[in-house]
Amino acid sequence: MSGIVRRLSMSAVVLGCSLPVMADNLSIDFNTYSTGDLPASWSHPSNAATGAQVVTFGGNNVLNVYNNGNGNDGVINNVRSPQLSQLAGEGGPGAQPGAVFDTFKSSFVFRTVSMSAVNGFQFKSESYGQDRTTWLKFYDDGTASHNLKIDYSGVTSVGNTPNSDTFNDNAGSPLTSLNWGDWYRVDTTVTFVGGPSNDVVDVKVYDLNNPLNPVWSVTDTTWEQYYRLDSEQGPNGNIVTGLNAIQFQMRGSMSGANNGVYIANVSLATVPLPASAWTGLALLGGVGLIQLRRKARLA
């Protein structure tokens, strides 16, 4: 074996050792989709308040998510991505069966369709399994300035008694306002830990004009205690849900495609621990940042 071949082989071994083993992953570029209605691989209940269609914007195909005006605010599962074949979540009694991996990661790029403030705007993204487990909202704050704000809501409990689940709204680092019409990337990592009130959700929001440092971040909890303790989940057996997809919704927002959002570059992965294997993934993420920024410039 020549010296060059030997060095290449050793490099491949080092790279392989540094990369995490992916249980399953999915990357969606809407340029591979035809324009028109939401592709069949996405879940979209017919009575949901949220609509979606693939449109061309700035020379690229993107997903336009919007309130379709039917007024039904009771459908939780609105526009949901294709599901991964592997489920991330907690194990043991009371957990959704089949959850064998500890970590779920998601990323997507979005911007408001409107370049100016939209009264009553609400865009939500949620990690999803048999139901939502995280809850992140971008919204018009209703003031005279119509700031585009962020709200993350986790769930905790005191005493782990029935209906002691408490929603923790407006968690995260301080931010005056996002910019209407600017592109942002939202990265979410959910790490499941056996037992109550101890799952960890890490969300970072990046401005694609400065993609290396987040403009907003939060470390908080999942909705595990809501599923364990709340009487609303009694009919579902108070099963703690796992994750294999992400959903978007505009329910409660102003209706119309022009008041919605554009979404691009959706990626999902279930990842086994240990977390020490993230080094290689972080390097790949740096390459992704450059590619996403280029895409944003095209738009």
Structural commentary:
The structure is a single chain. The protein is 14% helix and 35% strand. Strand 9 and strand 10 form a beta hairpin. It is of the alpha+beta class. The relative contact order is 0.24. It has one domain (20-298): Jelly Rolls, CATH 2.60.120.
Quick take:
By secondary structure, the chain is of the alpha+beta class. It has 3 helices and 17 strands.
Q: In angstroms, what is the radius of gyration?
A: 20 Å
The CATH C-level class name: Mainly Beta
Q: What is the helix content?
A: 10-25%
State the CATH architecture. Sandwich
Number of DSSP helical runs: 3
Helix/strand/pairing class, anyone? alpha+beta
- The CATH topology is Jelly Rolls
List keywords for this structure.
single chain; 299 residues; alpha+beta; Jelly Rolls; nine-stranded antiparallel sheet; six-stranded antiparallel sheet; 17 strands; disordered N terminus; disordered C terminus
